[in-house]
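Notes to self after the call with IL:
- keep both proteins in one doc
- input above output, always
- annotate only the second one for now

Protein 1:
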Amino acid sequence: MHAWEIMSKPVVRVNLSTLVREASALLIRHGVAALPVVNADNQVVGIFTEADALRCGEHLEDVVEAFMTSPVKVVPMDTDVDQIARHMLTDRLRSVPVVKDGVLVGIVSRRDLLRPFVRQDDAIEAQLRSVLADYAGDRDRWHVHVTDGVAVVSGEFEDEAERRVIALLAKCVPGVVCTELRSQAPA
């Protein structure tokens, strides 16, 4: 597997003159650990990380060029993911920009490296379990299993109104295509 197969795109990026305040807001808004810093030709000249943002302190009106990490390691689109993972682990990186002919085209994060190992159904199932645990006050009331986007929720339901609530909660989880509720008597 190669970088181009797992990279995230489009990439949230900043330029050398972006204010630290704006770059920090982008990190938070998009839930990313780092923003590639590009020049006018869209070539990566640095990276602005969460650690860089913290190091800025009260210098929020300064530009990222003053605080970015540079030089930054980039990888071509055809780089093997094993090589990227080794590089990220060795250098303790959370993400690596991906380039084509020197131009930024994507970014590979640790999450991107993990994604191929987790089935989509597993991610849906985990999120649905979390939603139901929040609803139930962290009491483990239902068993959840997802196959091909079909969520099966089994356990005790107080009444028909609760069944409808559980079905609606499941429907709100991205990836759930349909929900089956199965009642089980208490043990």
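Protein 2 (the one to annotate):
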Amino acid sequence: MHFIDALGEMCPIPIIKAEKELKKLNKGEKLVLETDHSCSIQSVVKHFEGKYNYKCSYIEVEEGIWQITIEKA
């Protein structure tokens, strides 16, 4: 599993970082992006599900900190 720390970064920076990292991954591999901006959840999920049809999910791991998992299709 690959990991990106996007704490303190606002969109579109998390999307740009995830785009770059996902290019390196093989189909079926997962990327976890950690963010502390709730608006990034909707932006990231909408982007990768809509543009690439990648599976996305997210969980709040601590109060105000979320991990978004993106599976490359």
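Annotation: The chain has one domain: 2-71. The first strand starts at residue 2 and ends at 5.
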